[in-house]
From TrEMBL:
Name of the featured protein: DNA 3'-5' helicase
Top-level taxon in the UniProt lineage: Bacteria
Catalysed reactions, as listed in the record: ATP + H2O = ADP + phosphate + H(+); Couples ATP hydrolysis with the unwinding of duplex DNA by translocating in the 3'-5' direction
Stretch forming the signal peptide: none
Gene Ontology MF term list: 3'-5' DNA helicase activity; ATP binding; ATP hydrolysis activity; DNA binding
Domain UvrD-like helicase ATP-binding: 3-253
Keyword Membrane annotated: no
Entry's Gene Ontology BP terms: recombinational repair
Length: 543
């Protein structure tokens, strides 16, 4: 890549043509490494060949695809998308009939919550945390999966399990994958689930070169079945996978890197720096007083030209309750990435409605971005794809007074399924809430970015205010009647989340506690400092 000089560690990973695991810290340029590897590989492929590039989010896959195509490079027949999109479009929709026979209905992907109650019979309560399928469950639920397919449904929560079974059982599928793809790249592997890990191994065994990229310290999704043990298991197989470590953080100021590393290892070596840019604040009052103090601080940062625009500042919080506390008291322009009624319902229809709304409000969102979402849930012929694109384009110039009905009608047309009342209500709530609508609009440089720590993953800002560093909140403690010991619900996951928050900051990171806090019931409690602010090895690394 022109104008970019890779480090020796990055070059070693780029130049190797072996199966590999790349463990990469925040700001290490791992995406640049993946992009360069893919660009070099596809340049030598025939037009009908390509690679598989899997990312954790649709936004990340769009970025990966754009960067790989930079300068007009032809990525040939490569796939870029999420793991669910790959499983549906390349494995399940084309080949599921070889497992279950032909369905009398158009097969669509639906989540557990979208199923009629009669179709939920025989399934575990998949809307509860802790109930996820793994590949060992396939035999138990095979007949149920077939029954759902007979009714035109592929269950969203079973995608990984069914995809592995298709690769195992279908020779036609295996031949197709081998004829089209040469390599498999999966980013954020620390957040892989058991079925996703098994699919990775199945495609490796099939003959694809396999590259897994991740960081155990950024594993923050254990509550939905992700587990860093899977990337660790790859590292323990040096006879199969080369292990490349890319651990130079080019993003964060050295003092931020030092602090972030010390929360895991109190004796780790420190980078040389004479300037400390991590701060621990203990402010008087509650979260409301914190918001007022942040208003003054942010205005001063702008006045002193320490930051060029408000959008370079982020306020990160533990949960959505904290977002609402900030919303009422923060006195600077902001954009809050809170709960979205459409995302909360999380059905195929609400996801499509979200993508249509984004296309309508943000000129950077393309018709193809909407098409890719639709293809998650249905398969389309070339002629129907042409019609789909024309239909999506038709909403771009509509008046705001007609956009609701247009989105509802188009969603019904694309997915061939009636939008139900709860989904209509969710769309109406979004359209009537200016704060939620902002989430769909292009970035405004005059708005501070406010979001939960989970949503900040993959982002970077000049200045980060990391809030909610209270005992009981971060890390989360469990209340056990009669027990006075500190019992933590998920110390490791919370520490990883803290690490993610710290390493979003490029120039300055401010860790904030206050003497009092509102609990989830609105009652004022003492705001004791988080255990994370008092870890061994941090003395002298903050102001």
């Amino acid at each position: 890549m022109v104008g970019f000089e890779f480090t020796p560690d990055q070059n070693a990973a780029i130049e190797s043509k072996s199966n590999m695991v790349i463990t990469a810290c925040p700001g290490s340029g791992k995406t640049s490494v993946i992009v360069e590897k893919i660009r070099r590989e596809v340049a030598g492929l025939q037009a009908y060949k390509g690679v598989i590039g899997i990312t954790f989010t649709i936004k990340a896959s769009k970025e990966l695809k754009q960067r790989c195509k930079q300068g007009g490079l032809d990525t040939k027949s490569s796939f870029f998308g999420t793991i669910d999109h790959f499983c549906l479009s390349e494995l399940i929709f084309p080949f599921i009939s070889r497992l279950y026979g032909k369905s009398d209905y158009t097969v669509e992907c639906k989540s557990y919550t979208e199923l009629d109650e009669s179709l939920k019979i025989g399934l575990p309560p998949l809307d509860d945390i802790g109930h996820e399928f793994n590949t060992d469950d396939y035999i138990t639920y095979e007949n149920k999966f077939k029954l759902l397919h007979d009714n035109g449904v592929v269950l969203l929560e079973s995608i990984g399990v069914i995809a592995v079974q298709i690769v195992t059982d279908s020779l036609a599928c295996r031949n197709y994958i081998l004829s089209k793809y040469t390599s498999l790249y999966i980013d954020e592997y620390q957040d892989s689930s058991q079925p996703q890990h098994e699919l990775f191994l199945s495609l490796l065994e099939l003959g694809l070169k396999a590259v897994a990229v991740g960081d155990v310290k950024q594993s923050i999704y254990a509550w939905r079945g992700s587990d860093p043990q899977y990337i660790q298991s790859l590292i323990t197989k040096p006879e199969i996978f080369e292990h490349h470590i890319v651990n130079v953080n080019h993003r964060c100021h050295p003092s931020i890197v030092n602090y972030a590393n010390r929360i895991f290892d109190s004796n780790c070596l420190l980078l040389p720096t004479s300037d400390i840019r991590v701060y621990q604040w203990v402010l008087n009052g509650t979260q409301h007083d914190v918001a007022e103090y942040l208003t003054e601080s942010i205005n001063k940062l702008l006045a002193d030209k320490i930051v060029q625009s408000l959008s370079n500042i982020a306020i990160l919080v533990r949960n959505n309750n904290s977002l609402s506390l900030l919303e009422t008291k923060l006195g600077v322009p902001n954009r809050i990435f809170g709960e979205n009624p459409l995302s909360q319902i999380n059905t195929s229809k609400t996801k499509l409605m979200s993508s249509l709304l984004a296309y309508y409000l943000d000129h950077k969102v393309l018709i193809n971005d909407v098409v890719e979402v639709a293809e998650h849930y249905s398969s389309f012929s070339p002629s129907s794809l042409k019609d789909l694109r024309a239909s999506v384009k038709s909403i771009s110039d509509l008046d705001s007074s007609t956009i609701k009905n247009a989105i509802l009608e188009l969603t019904n047309k694309i997915l061939d399924e009636k939008v139900i009342e709860i989904e209509v209500n969710a769309l109406e709530r979004v359209l009537s809430d200016k704060n939620i609508l902002k989430q769909y609009m292009p970035e405004n440089k005059n708005e501070v970015q406010i979001m939960t720590l989970h949503k900040s993953k993959g982002l970077e800002f000049d200045i980060v205010f990391h809030l909610d560093l209270y005992d009981w909140i971060m890390p989360k403690r469990e209340f056990i009647s009669g027990c006075y010991d500190e019992v933590f619900a998920s110390w490791e996951q919370d520490l990883n989340l803290h690490y993610v928050g710290i390493t979003r900051a490029k120039e300055h990171c401010i860790l904030v506690n206050s003497t009092n806090r509102f609990n989830h019931e609105g009652v004022i409690k003492q705001g004791k400092k988080s255990q994370f602010m008092m870890l061994d090895g941090l003395t002298g690394l903050y102001k």
